[in-house]
């Protein structure tokens, strides 16, 4: 299970302290996840300084699936840039030749990090708070880029009941993130912990079979940050997605 988005706070008095926060970032980006199509040499993300009075530095870097900072096969350019008050800019993520060594039959998971660095205060003992945004980046090799108007790959997901345990099986080459699951579309997402399933893998959905019933509804995050629903129908211990007929 992975967190969809993670925020950190950098607080400075005499040093730097990291802690979680729900404060609003001065520097923001235009998406909550990144899809990197392997057919492109680079992609660009839009970033903005929402502070109308102060300039900020924006620092970007990549991490691998284990959360370790990396400089290959993807690199952020420029690694640091200045954003004037109320202005926008772009960050480029470029694939190095080492990207050719990534699996070509499935997506690879990375994390893009964007940290704001506030201007140094001219007042002593001033508390400075800055946010760090961390979003998933899925490197999608050219061989598995879906055709235009193709049916969502998530339609191939299945559920398998093993007693009260429900396993979500992902037979596709794409990562799938489920943000809600219940017996109806109105199930309270506050009681559900998001689940990310790797390509060709299975994960415990974390909801009991009795709570899901025989017509479960799952909500996932698509490439654009949207939240479509999947309606399942169960027979015995196996559940399949019910697709709309056209």
From TrEMBL:
Residues 27-144 form the Pili assembly chaperone N-terminal domain. GO terms for biological process: cell wall organization. InterPro entries: Ig-like_fold (IPR013783), PapD-like_sf (IPR008962), Periplasmic_pilus_chap (IPR050643), Pili_assmbl_chap_C_dom_sf (IPR036316), Pili_assmbl_chaperone_bac (IPR001829), Pili_assmbl_chaperone_C (IPR016148), Pili_assmbl_chaperone_CS (IPR018046), Pili_assmbl_chaperone_N (IPR016147). Pfam families: PapD_C, PapD_N. Its main location: periplasm. Residues 168-227 form the Pili assembly chaperone C-terminal domain. Gene3D superfamilies: Immunoglobulins (2.60.40.10). Keywords: Chaperone, Fimbrium biogenesis, Immunoglobulin domain, Periplasm, Signal. Residues 1-25 form the signal peptide. GO terms for cellular component: outer membrane-bounded periplasmic space. It is found in: Periplasm. PANTHER family: FIMBRIAL CHAPARONE PROTEIN, PILUS ASSEMBLY CHAPERONE. Belongs to the periplasmic pilus chaperone family. This is Fimbria/pilus periplasmic chaperone. It comes from Providencia stuartii.
